[in-house]
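Hey, quick one: can you model this chain's 3D structure?
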Amino acid sequence: MPKPRFTGVITALVTPFHEDGSLDLAAYRALVREQLAAGVDGLVPCGTTGESVTLSQDEHRAVVTACRDEARGMVPVIAGAGANDTKKAVYNQRAMHELGVDATLHVTPYYNKPTQEGLYRHFRAVAEAAPTPVILYNVPGRTGVDLLPETVARLAADCPTIVGVKEATGSVARAQDVLNRVAVIHGGEGRDDFAVLSGDDGLILGLLAVGGHGVISVISHLCCKELSQMFKAFRDGKHAEAQALAKRISPLAQILFFRTSPMPVKTAVAWRGLIKKTFRLPLCSLDDGEEAQLKKMLMAEGWLS
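Sure thing. Here's the predicted structure for all 305 residues.
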């Protein structure tokens, strides 16, 4: 049976802007190159971390194209394509298919608060719109709706191009429930190609321990190399080494979320000289006190000199 294609450390990239708010694609390409050099296993352009809801359709395409071209097939590119209007999500799925990405990431429709049947129909319509593989994204803390494990399993059973889920419920038990349910679909045959990915940077090792497959990460902007080493150590059965790396990395999962993401991580990346500290409203820069607090925390843990 095929194994999941989308595994390991997958970085949800920030989107750099010039000081006037326009896209900084040169900085974006440099960011992709840095991630590749650090051993990343996949890249997500235009997700939540990439401020995708503030991008025009043309900008969305430009960012995804830059990521695809810079990655040069070395790692999968999983383009953010979600929307809370099914017609728009279907359009995005087709548009990303035309760009030749490896997969798309579709968040649950936010604000509308659909039922589980509505979620099922939404994602099935997306999956049937174009053959590019789809990864579901469940983040009820942001969307106001929870994609339940039974609905994930139903979609996995009925839609072969739905190949995974990013679970950001903050619960390893939830991820394990999804894994268990997907394992018994199709009369008990399950789907070995279906990936369950952590959407919570603080739960990566716990998810791997119950059979998960990786993480779509924010903190990997600062610690991609260490995260990749942790994943490899766990995969190779070197659990003590994996735990030691997790202990080193884990403070970032609190530090980089002390304010709404991606505000802290984008600020930290800017301090390293890769991008500018520019956001698009309604997100805005941290104030002086918040920046000082962030800098103090990063320096204390050795992630900023």
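One thing worth noting: The chain has 13 helices and eight strands.
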